[in-house]
Amino acid sequence: MSTASPLPMNWEVPQIFHQRLGDGPGRQRVMEAEGHLLIVTHRPPRHGESVRSGRYFWRNPNGVLQSSDLGQGPSSMIKHLEEYNAAIIKLEKAENDAQSSEEYFRVISELGPLLRATRNLHSTLQSARELAGNDRTMINFRDRSYDLERSAELLYNESKNELDFLIAQRTEQQAASSHRMAVSAHRLNILAAMFFPMVTLATIFGSSLQHGWETASAPIPFFTMLIVGFLLGLLLNWFINVPVEPKPRTRHGADARIPRSP
After folding, report:
1. What angle do CA 54, 60, 62 make, to 5 degrees?
2. What is the number of other CB atoms lying within 10 angstroms of the CB of residue 7?
3. Would 31 disulfide with which of 14, 38, 44, 165, CB 3.0-4.6 Å?
């Protein structure tokens, strides 16, 4: 097993911090020993990333903050929080541009890990604030992480609501289309029932009436038949596809819909 610590070797931190860390960052948390604080955080998760990448912040007893890869001072934590903010803004833009259920699902899939990361980050910085006392810098970090968690949570809920609305809208459209197809099929069945006895009798006994067109000019009966057939086809198409509005639900003859409260 590897015994190397993920912390920078030039950090003069208590040995217990090295001992309590594994090869990876583990969960986001804060450690305290001999007046030193070690804040273990995660970088903003990326889409498809299964293993979280760690980032470490060390606050010495004098209140000086250093990071493992973002320099030192309060600006290091600010940069870390801004990375989360940039990830949220990117997904917010993707949510605004989303049109299909697949696009909304992609946004939600990326927002889930980001929301959990911001929530755990806020909890970690809250613990660090309690251990650091009334350090205003740590208080500001805690408050900023709460804003990030709130933004991610609102965006996640909004994306889920939009996806649910889109699915419900598609379901209503499919139900309306199925209703129209059922009405059309019912009308065709009625027409078939009306003309089926006539066609059956004509087929059994045969029918060849003298209508006088046998001796008429050849093109006239043919084109007349086409025109009449086309007009009857239009009439039949209108009859089949005439819209039918669903009846509202009623209770004892009155509208049973529950009125919205003002």
Report:
1. 150
2. 17
3. 38
